[in-house]
Design a protein that fits this description.
The structure is a single chain. By secondary structure, this protein is mainly alpha-helical. It has helices spanning 2-13, 20-56, 84-100, 105-137, 154-157, 195-200, 204-211, 214-220, and strands at residues 143-147, 163-165, 179-182. It has a three-stranded antiparallel sheet. Helix 2 runs parallel beside helix 4 (105-137) and helix 7 (204-211) crosses helix 8 (214-220). It is flat.
């Protein structure tokens, strides 16, 4: 869902042209519709995910929510509380900034598109994590385990399987798509929560890319 929405946003941006504001105003209604639809699907999926995960990991006794909420209330708002229309318009601001810095129109359009697709990915990841966090807080769950969404970067890989208390923030870098597993303890043996298992599953090229160099990959091997 996240990748599809980011791709759809990127295709819409292709229609902006060299008149940034005028071009953006033409695609904005469709763009916001894409974001709203994707956010709604991600939010509902995250809402359903928590009780399903508890059942699948033998933690059925914890599926006792003390309050309910509407996951669709997350639609239209980014993780920092910023409206999604303002977030999306940041792509135009990025394009204008590129021009102000001496960039060409093509460079500006490329910068705006990169900003937009990255922002969409971050928006939807935050939406999923936000709903999961609230759904977890509604239940007698004491913590969560960090889970990768492969392919993952080295910064995220080293945190795979780390357990946090429920009141510990989910630290991430821009465009991070990691998730958390509501749990009383780590789920051992899972590629997405075991650092060594995940790295060991990669081929040489992917391992070097994840660890930052061929030397690091060789050292791990």
């Amino acid at each position: 869902e996240i990748g599809a929405a980011a791709s759809a946003a990127g295709r819409l941006w292709d229609r902006v042209g060299d008149e940034f504001d005028a071009g953006y105003s033409q695609i904005e209604p469709q763009l916001l519709a894409v974001l709203d639809t994707a956010q709604a699907r991600v939010a509902q999926g995250a809402m359903d995910y928590v009780p399903r995960l508890l059942r699948d990991t033998g933690q059925d006794a914890l599926d006792r929510p003390s309050f309910g909420f509407d996951p669709l209330s997350f639609v239209g708002t980014a993780g920092d509380g910023m409206p999604t229309d303002s977030l999306a318009y940041g792509s135009v601001l990025r394009a204008k900034h590129t021009i102000a810095e001496g960039g060409t129109t093509l460079e500006a359009l490329a910068a705006g598109q990169t900003f937009l697709t990255t922002a969409v990915g971050t928006l939807l990841s935050d939406t999923g994590r936000g709903v999961e966090t609230l759904a977890t807080a509604a239940r007698p769950i004491t913590g969560y385990v960090r889970m990768l969404s492969p392919p993952s970067c080295g910064r995220c890989v080293v945190l795979a399987g780390k357990r946090y208390k429920t009141n510990d923030g989910f630290k991430r870098h821009p465009d991070c798509d990691c998730r958390h597993i509501p749990a009383t303890e780590d789920v051992a043996g899972d590629l997405t929560t075991d650092v060594s298992a995940y790295l060991g599953s990669l081929d040489d090229r992917a391992l070097a890319r994840t660890l930052g160099s061929e030397a690091n990959a060789e050292a791990f091997r």
